[in-house]
Amino acid sequence: MNQLTLTLMKVAFLAVLWLFVIAAVGVIRADLWGSKAAAKALRPRKAPQPARQPKAAAPRAKRSEPTKLVITQGARAGTTLDLAGTEIVMGRGNDVTLPLGDDYSSGRHARLFSQNGQWFVEDLGSTNGTFLGRAKVSRPEPVSVGVQIRIGKTVIELRK
Amino acid sequence: MSSITTNEAGIPVATHPRRSAQLAMLIFAMIITVAGFAQVGLARDGHLPVGMYGYGLGLGLLAAGAYFVVVRFAPYADPLLLPLAVFLNGIGLAMIYRLDLNTSQDMKDAIAAGKKVVPFNGVSTSAQLEWTALGMIFFVVTLLVMRDVKIVQRYIYTIGALGLFFLALPGFLPSSISGALGAKIWIRIGSISIQPGEFSKLALVAFFAGYLVNKRQALSIVGKKFGPINLPRARDLGPILVIWVICLGVLALENDFGTAILFFGLFVSMLYIATERFEWVAIGAVLLACASLLAPMIPHVSQRISTWLNPQPYFDGGCRINGKIVNQTPLADCLHKGGQYIADSGQLMRGLFSMGQGGVLGTGLGQGQPWRTPLAYSDFIVTSFGEELGLTGLMVILLAYALIVQRGMKAAVATKDNFAKLFAGGVSFVFALQVFVIVGGVTRLIPLTGLTTPFLAQGGSSLLANWILIAILIRVSDTARRPAPQPIQDEGMTQVVNTA
Question: pTM score > 0.80 for this model?
Answer without folding.
Answer: no
